[in-house]
Specification:
This protein has two domains: about 1-45, no CATH class; about 55-165, no CATH class. Strands 1-3-2 form a three-stranded antiparallel beta sheet, covered by helices on one side. The chain has five helices and three strands, in the order αααβαββα. Helix content is about 60%, strand content about 10%.
Length: about 170
Amino acid sequence: MAKRYGLLFLLCYGIWCVLNWLPEWQALVLGLPVAALVAWLTVDLPTASSGLTLLEPSRFWYFCAWYLPVFWWECLKANIDVAYRVLHPRLPICPALVRVQTGLRSDLALTVLANTISLTPGTISIDVNPEQGILYVHCMTVSPAEVGKKATVVVERFARILKRVFE
């Protein structure tokens, strides 16, 4: 435990020094108790051996290489769509609540998925049913013909990646 705390302290202090770029002695001195406090508060957080699989290097890099670009692309598309609808008020807004079967079972994967959906403009996660892997999403624009399709396509794209990362 002490070894883990020491490594975590050094990591936190190193990050503190890098973030201060050209630190003066006051910043270096202030960084010591801050790094000690952060290390003390986080030393008992779960690691890969206790279920937090994102800390495994292959899963972490898969998350960075696949999930983040897909998220940024979907977020960019959603931002443009919402901005276009704001600037052209005659475009239809047909809100709908959509039930999506995700196929995810872990709480962490469902939480990341729900937060991702909520961060994407025009959608927000309303509820999660972890036992069945169901996510309820409110969409700003869904035509009656494609009530389940639009949200399902976006959610499934994220869910496939998250399943590989977290499960």
